[in-house]
Amino acid sequence: MKRLLLIFYIFFSALLSAQQKATLFLIGDSTMANKENPDKNPEHGWGQMLPPLMTSALEIQNHAANGRSSKSFRTEGRWDQVMKQLKKGDFVLIQFGHNDQKINDSARFTNPYTQYRANLERYVNETRSKGAIPILLTSIVRRNFNENGVLADTHKEYPLVVRMVANDLKVPFVDLQLLTEQLEISYGPENSAKLHLHYKKGEAAYYPEGKNDDTHLSKLGAESIAKLAVHSLKNLKTGLEEYIK
Fold it and tell me: Domain SGNH hydrolase-type esterase: where (predicted)?
């Protein structure tokens, strides 16, 4: 009988521990998302590269998905999936902007100063309503060097609005726009192609016709950005640093 009670005690203790385990949720677009066939696919999202940088005491759920904006992520029910699980002590990384710019797509476009801002504020407030900690991030830059070797901005007002919301609502903030801008510049106009998806025809089996993509990330680019993000997250002192290796 005592042995049976001990088994039940161990089982329920383990169950309780699992239920209380903190979770890091990622919501955002393709630059953050997990990519299929990671052993063969040259493309990786930077969020995909986080698990090796964090301890096993933290569960990571990457809900970021290709092509999603702050609007479509919610209308498709993806945020509902997070909210159903979100609990006190969890963390949510919020990174939108790339697809909010798509002015010819009513399902995704948001005006930066009105709907985009309102969407970010809603994600923040709803996260906090669950006792979880929201963390806002600006979008990563695109590799967009002009003829003079200057990295030109493509995101316009969207990163500014993220900064405004972070400041006004006192939200922990990671300026991935700045960090990735510095990263691209450090590699230079030509060498920075290594951070993205640039393959000639026949060079990569996954892209038999070749690939020329300055937005999405190679494994090197994703790993580099994940390390930059984690370094900033560690300095925020939100409690997430306890799970960073």
Answer: 26-221
DSSP code string of 14-39 = HHHHHHH--EEEEEE-TTTS--SSTT
pLDDT digits 0-9 by tens, 191-238: 999 999 999 998 999 999 999 999 999 999 999 999 999 999 999 999
d(CA 124, CA 173) in angstroms, rounded, equals: 12
Q: Is the pTM of this model over 0.85?
A: yes
Minimal CA–CA distance to 177: which of 150, 144, 137?
137
Characterize 15-25 residue by residue with b for buried, 16 or more Cβ atoms within 10 angstroms of its Cβ, and e for exposed. Answer: eeeeeeebbbb
Structure tokens at 107: 């399902």
Q: Which helix (H) or strand (E) holds 93?
A: strand 91-95
Strand order in the sheet with 91-95: 59-62, 23-28, 91-95, 133-137, 173-174
Domains and CATH numbers, the chain: 23-243 (3.40.50.1110)
